[in-house]
Design brief:
By secondary structure, the chain is of the alpha+beta class. Helices cover about 25% and strands about 45% of the residues. It has two domains: about 25-45 and about 265-465, no CATH class; about 55-210. It has helices at about 1-20, 55-65, 185-210, 215-225, 305-315, 380-390, 395-405, 410-425; strands at about 25, 45-55, 70-75, 80-90, 90-95, 100-115, 120, 125-130, 135, 145-155, 160-175, 180, 185, 230, 235-240, 240-245, 250, 255-265, 265-270, 295-300, 320, 325-335, 340-350, 350-365, 370-375, 405-410, 425-430, 430-450, 455-465. β21 and β22 (about 325-335) form a beta hairpin.
Amino acid sequence: MKLLTHYKAFVGLLFFASLGCKSINVPIPEENHQIGSFVKKQELSIIDVPVTVDLDLLFKTINNVVPKKFIGSESLCEGVSFSYVLERNPISYKTKDKSLSLVFNGKYKLNLNYCPKCTYLFDKKGSCITPRIAFSCGENEPMRNVSFSFFTKLNINNNLSLSANTKLTHLDILDPCKVTAFNFDISSRVKKEFELSLKDFAAEINKKISSFDLKGKISSVWNDFSKPIKIKDLGFFYLQPFQFSASEFSYSKNSAKINLSFVSKPSLFTNDTVKVLKKPLPSLTSYLKKDGFNIQLDIKASYDSLSSIINNKISGKKIKIKGRLFRFESCSVSSTINNKILFKIKFSGRKHGFIYLIGSPVFDKEQQVLYFKDVSFSLKTKNHLLKSSSWILSPTICKYIESASILDLQKEFSKIKTVLEKELNNKKVNGFQLKSSINSLSLIEFLAMKKSLFLRLNLTGKLSVFY
């Protein structure tokens, strides 16, 4: 009998000991199946991108393919007839704000003949009744000097081709050809013939400028803009352009600059596995001038990032609940129904296992603080613990999680701002160089989605892209 009593006591001790060590496995609460239907439509962002055309390269190419010599003549039966050869030096140019001038120095020579009197008796075209008197300027002597210039206006067409409107603005015969024997200055007539040749020359310049592959350059910019930009410690930045316009050309030193205004929906993802639809290069639209940028940046961050922040605060922390030890091991965050956050707490101490808490995310826009209110045990956790370990159902645990999950976004955004400025400044990515400055960064919308936290940030500043 005594032995039986000891046996029962021993079994009872094992039973209660087993209760003390038994792990707690609470059923998982209902998961979130919403896909972001409550996310407001992202406002469009406009980013101005200056694209430059190297005028040295452009006109070096044009110089080699347009005529260097012009030949013409004017024949009269009576009076002075002439033929000419006009040669130009290589193209030089001058730029100023919105104007582009092509400047040439050249040389010419004339072969002339003079007929004092014609008869039309035997020929409708007439024939000189005396031998013609021949003379020349710039022949068998240094050629005579001439200068001329054009005004050129570059345009970008809706089909993204480049066009030019080139007009002769100046022609100066520096060394006129005067026939002293007849007291005759042929310069005005020669000038008119030169103007005809130079008008054709301007049309040739327009043709060659139009052959410049501007569409290919813009297409390259568009394709590069459609690629993700890796941002250290943050993820991948997608500009996602879908429309663009172009300003008029302006000029500075040896370059022509045009501003491309991209209409986009920028997003930042924590990984590059997100499928982003790449849109084909569209046609040109009316120019939308924008000083700097004021963009809404959508971020889809994995719940791991929030879990990591909370874990840094609670991992290893111990509390006493009704004299019993409760030790926080880790916290895993996910979403549940009704835009709420689910906290999966791994714990040890008097008991060990997992419990689930649910809280509502609250965003204080003015203070830029994100916190979770009304943190409580999930219904399935309550029902499970009431049967065995009701002492764990302590508001102390909920308060601890509420305190640990307060996120001061101003501090976090200050870090993000520093990282973004560093990563988007003087950095070559996708074939172009970025230059930026960020004035402000703030959170304007927050949503707990099925697989990620949705954050919509507002960024203001300046962003330039150089090729």
